[in-house]
Amino acid sequence: MPLGLNLFSARLGFDGGLFLADYKAVTARRPVDSIPTPNRLNIPLRHRADLSTHPLAAVGQRLLGGELIAAPGDANGVGVPAPTSGTVTALSRVWSAQDGYLPSAIFEPDGRDERVPAQLSWEDDSILAMLARGAAMCCNPRLPAHVVLRKAVSAAVNTLIVNGMETEPYLTADLRALVEMPGRMVDAACEIADAVGVTRVIIALPDRHRRVFKRIAGESVARFVEVVALPDKYPQCHPIILAKTLLDLDTPPGGSTLDIGALVLTPGALRPIADAVFDDRPMTHVVISVAGDAVVSPGTYRVPIGMDFDSIGRHVGLNTDAPTIVSGGPFTGVHVPRGDSVVTSTTTAVLFFAHQPHGDPMACVHCGWCVEDCPVGVSPVELSQLELQATCSPDAVPQLRACIDCGLCTFVCPARLPLAATIKRCRGRFADYPEGGA
Amino acid sequence: MIAPTIAALEYPRSAPFKTGGSDHAEILRSWLYAAALPAMAGVVLFGRTALIVIGASIGAALITDFLMDRLTRRRQRSDTLHVALLALLLALTFPAQAPWYIPAFAAFIMVTVKAAFGGISHCLWHPALIGRVVVQFLFTQQLALTFAGAPVSGPVLAPQHLVSGQLELARRFAATEYLGWREAGLEEQQAHAFETVRPQQVLRLFADGHISKDTSLWKNDPPLRITPLLRDYLPPWGDTILGAVPGAIGETTSLALVVAGLYLIYRGHLRWQLPVAVILGAAVAAAIMPISIGANGSYRWVPALVFEEGRAVGLAYVLFHLTAGQLLICAFLLGGEMLLSPLRARGQFLFGAGIGVLTIFLRLYGPLDGEGYWAVLAMNSIVPMIDQRLKRPVLGIDD
């Protein structure tokens, strides 16, 4: 569309939100790089604490890349493939950012990188079976890909949204996927649309990446895929906000976009799906952004699952001795208090921050910035006052559930109140019980 | 989840891991810079005595705050900055010739009231304005500013004697003799200052029907005459822009107040909706609210539509309302105090429009002096209701 027309047309968007300094100037231009496999991996044997697996490999057994270390415990689980050829030397436990301690296998690669040959037979396999065999995990929701698709089928979704917005600062993995393999992303989106049976596929992109938009639009010619450019206002990347912007449908509080008939997947989730479906390559590596103000050479890296954060920090170089390690984005991620925590199948980013002095919280100064910037329209300061109450009114429960944990209220608060964390805690106290009382 | 190490207990960090924007100390600092601008203009226009008022107010406020901290054993971050800001705003509401103990006592009341409410974020009314209106009743003799309606005159330094002149060496003018700040100075080289009636009180006399009284030809239905007011009684409009009219230290200088407000809006520490709403509300109110004609107790509505000899004197009358008195200091500095204004921009619009309308209403018909201060206090008291009514629709629940 010519620039002039673009200026006068209606802008898609949502109330609230904030245009943030995104710190992506360097990393967005760097191609995806591989971090070499270290001598020792600590591979978690579960993708999530509640997805059980049975260990298959004995201690001392040599495995090829792609062979299963652990088999799925039930139909909703996926196995744990070995990232490369090597030996399981011990069974242990490992700290993961999301789930705490998980059972793990110490795996020592032998450097030969021999792999199980791929079976590219399309005749006798459904896509769901191929995804289950490929151990593909989605990061949002944190579920195996074939379970996500099965849920989408049973929820009768009619729209697939590929969420290429990635408006959180520092994160570039999704953008690099769209830049480096636009055709593969569109192909994967179409395969998923066929498998789930949706009639409408929307690819949402930030409007300032004009060349990415053109390439994706070129790949989706005559494929019934709509490509939409949106302003990259945070949190446009959140599925609920994206569905509200694109479809004008309100997700009920506490629900997911499946409730309104939309399946939202990021390019980061399409990447292992494409690997599993097109190449029969199991998900043994993840592509993550490694950035933060303590990192010397930030970028988007392909790292094996089971690599610890200290090794990643050594590879990219850190300019501080004791960085704050964050798994995930700076607004939605989890603080990882120890460096021997490892990359799991649902890690999207590892951020290293230098120690930054943050002021002590004081009383609310009534500036109204949190109310103004909240993307769902709740009043964060009012909800955070539930912290001091023993019970909460029935009206507050849906508001606690409507919060999407974007973290903007804490970001803007001039009194430095931990609003987002308090709301999250209050939701745990009040809204996660059916009657709303704690 | 078990906390694995002591380090995790020491730094229980949670998302987001970045904070942005200003913290409260930075907001207070920019407000202090903004309030310092009309204060400096006041020192230029009213001389060294204005400095005494400002110093007495800030000093008394800081001492009281220190003693209050000792007494109540509370310690709160950036409270001192906030007290200094409130004391500076308080000093801006006093005329420069006020004895030093009046602003000092007002500052004492201000800090006490603030502490009685429970600190920085629990006040319902603007503490500085509470201090101002309390001493307005306590020191009736010294201030002569208790009740509206009486023409109170005050001095302003002559153009040749700015900053260094003495307000006591003033030449007194009747309102009809005073030609204007520059013109009066051409004849009066000796006088350090000119003393004349404050413009908002001239406007009050006009609303009471004391000025456009020559109704001899019309027995029953005399027209409203605005020309005598503009030509004979009010100073030139440019004087009210510069602030070269009598009044309180901070309230006369419209130019400095507008610049201070624009600075705050540029910093993002004041929403533009609030001052715009105050000015719009005041303009609409001044354009509509009736003026007594003085005969048979009859009133004329919509004075803004009065044309005399082809001149839009009604609009000029509205412009005088905008730059006279406490309207602009309430719009830019007193009304926009974060702690005491609504949370949302549209609530602030409502709040500001209320201040504007109430200011003009009290100026034209109210019983007490300090119309803008009363208007801000009145609107402060309904801020919780505005916040309650104007909530945003929540995604998935409302609409």
Structural notes for this entry:
The complex is a heterodimer of chains A (438) and B (399). By secondary structure, chain A is of the alpha/beta class. Chain A folds into 4 domains: 41-109, OB fold (Dihydrolipoamide Acetyltransferase, E2P) (Beta Barrel); 126-279, 3-Layer(aba) Sandwich (Rossmann fold); 284-353, Ubiquitin-like (UB roll), CATH 3.10.20; 369-431, no CATH class. Chain A contains 14 helices and 17 strands. Chain A has a 6-stranded mixed β-sheet, covered by helices on one side. Chain A has a 4-stranded antiparallel β-sheet with strand order 2-8-7-4, with no helix packed on it. Chain A has a 4-stranded parallel β-sheet with strand order 11-10-9-12, with helices on both faces. In chain A, helix 2 packs antiparallel against helix 3, helix 5 (182-196) crosses helix 8 (267-279) and helix 12 packs across helix 14. The radius of gyration of chain A is 22 Å and the shape is globular. Chain B has 399 residues and is mainly alpha-helical. Chain B folds into 2 domains: 25-143, no CATH class; 153-161 and 197-385, no CATH class. In chain B, the strands form 2 sheets. A 3-stranded mixed β-sheet of chain B has the order 1-3-2. Chain B has a two-stranded antiparallel sheet with strand order 4-5. In chain B, strand 2, helix 8 and strand 3 form a beta-alpha-beta unit. The longest helix of chain B is centred in the first third of the chain and has 25 residues, at 48-72. The radius of gyration of chain B is 23 Å and the shape is globular. At the A-B interface, helix 7, helix 10, helix 12, helix 13 and helix 14 of A face helix 2 of B.
Q: Strands, helices and their partners?
A:
The complex is a heterodimer of chains A (438) and B (399).
Chain A: H1 3-8, E1 33-34, E2 41-44, E3 53-55, E4 62-63, E5 68-72, E6 80-81, E7 86-96, E8 100-109, H2 127-133, H3 145-154, E9 159-163, H4 173-180, H5 182-196, E10 200-206, H6 210-219, E11 225-230, H7 239-247, E12 262-265, H8 267-279, E13 285-291, E14 299-304, H9 309-316, E15 324-327, E16 334-336, E17 349-353, H10 369-373, H11 380-384, H12 396-402, H13 408-412, H14 419-431
Chain B: H1 6-10, H2 24-46, H3 48-72, H4 79-92, H5 101-117, H6 127-138, H7 140-143, E1 153-157, E2 170-172, H8 181-187, E3 193-197, H9 199-207, H10 227-233, H11 237-242, H12 254-267, H13 273-288, E4 291-292, E5 299-300, H14 313-323, H15 327-334, H16 345-365, H17 371-380, H18 383-389
Parallel strand pairs in B: 2-3
Antiparallel strand pairs in B: 1-3, 4-5
